[in-house]
Design brief:
Elements lengths: L10 H17 L9 H37 L7 H33 L13 H4 L2 H22 L4 H30 L7 H18 L3 H11 L5 H24 L3 H10 L2
């Protein structure tokens, strides 16, 4: 796994990035591979982008809670301004995620341009290889469960509950759109590799990112933030059951499915 550093790389941060890249390789069973400036740069920008992306769901949860404040206070119950503001924010968060994805893709493209050669038989893994059917089913079931909670709250005759359910629906649709956008970027991201080891590392990064996308933080927390204790008791019980069942399924997936490194090697073996 050899490469030249990117043209504008910062030498002061190179040693730290290389150490982190070496630790990453060791964690994924690639301890025999030498950490290169190319891999260090890719992992560094990936880590920064993931940190920035992690703030997007937090902003969405806080904004949804703020949009629900007039409902709790009994003010502006029929004014659409809070909902319009939340919808505009969702659009802004989608744009922010698009810019993050563009940044990572640009770094990958620049890294690919520095390679002296490209790995033979390059692959562009599809969703089954990157995400896997079990994780795809889990993500779909999580979305269905959260939407069922929102839909059942809409059916409650209490006006306050129904207004909060609309806020919940906007938030859930927003986070789903952001997740789909991230997965689309992940599948279309260029392969950057010049040998077998760097190609394996590229696939591992894709698998890790795809699996992280299925963690339903917003789908679990947003119904509890907006409606728990306000909706009827049966709804609150259903929301708690949804979280518990989802958590059990998430843990089972992490324990029972192959690691990202194993999944990547399987992809490599069927090229």
């Amino acid at each position: 796994m050899t490469s030249e550093p990117l043209p504008d790389a910062d030498p002061s941060a190179r040693a730290a990035d290389l150490r982190l890249a070496g630790a990453w390789l060791a964690r994924h069973g690639l301890s025999g591979a030498r950490p290169t400036p190319l891999l260090a740069d890719r992992l560094a920008v990936r880590g920064r982008a993931r940190l920035a992306a992690a703030t997007i769901p937090a902003v969405l949860i806080v904004a949804s809670a703020l949009a629900a404040v007039p409902v709790f206070d009994g003010r502006e119950s029929h004014r659409p301004l809070p909902l319009l503001a939340l919808t505009a924010l969702v659009a802004g968060l989608l744009l922010a995620q698009s810019l993050l994805d563009w940044w990572v893709r640009r770094v990958d493209q620049r890294a690919g341009a520095t390679l002296s050669r490209r790995a033979a038989h390059l692959i562009q893994p599809g969703w089954r290889a990157v995400l896997g059917l079990p994780y795809a089913v889990f993500a779909a079931a999580t979305f269905a469960g959260a939407m069922a909670l929102a839909g059942s709250a809409l059916a409650v005759p209490e006006p306050t509950v129904r207004q909060l359910a609309v806020v919940l629906l906007i938030g859930l649709l927003g986070v789903t759109a952001i997740t789909v956008l991230q997965l689309r970027h992940l599948l279309r991201r260029p392969v950057v590799a010049e040998d077998e080891e760097s190609l394996t590392a590229d696939v591992i990064m894709r698998v890790e990112d795809a699996r992280d996308l299925t963690t339903p933080n917003v789908q679990w927390s947003l119904p509890m933030v907006l409606l728990f204790g306000t909706a009827p008791g049966w709804w609150s019980a259903a929301a708690v059951a949804n979280v518990i069942l989802g958590l059990v399924a998430c843990v089972a997936l992490r324990v029972r499915t192959p690691s990202s490194a194993t999944a990547a090697r399987r992809v490599m073996s069927v090229r």
